[in-house]
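Sequence design from tokenized structure. All designs in this work follow the same two-part layout: the structure record, then the generated sequence. An example of the structure record is given first.
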């Protein structure tokens, strides 16, 4: 049972990290798009 919970913890950490990187990338692209619209 402990091994199963450890797998779930690692799984959620990887998902959270992936969403975190995705939000950073989308924010960067959004900023570049806004800059292009301004000019």
């Amino acid at each position: 049972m402990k091994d199963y919970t450890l797998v779930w913890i690692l799984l959620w950490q990887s998902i959270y990290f992936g969403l975190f990187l995705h939000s950073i990338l989308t924010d960067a692209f959004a900023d570049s798009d806004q800059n292009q619209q301004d000019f």
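Helices lie at 2-38. We note this feature because it recurs in several other targets discussed in the main text.
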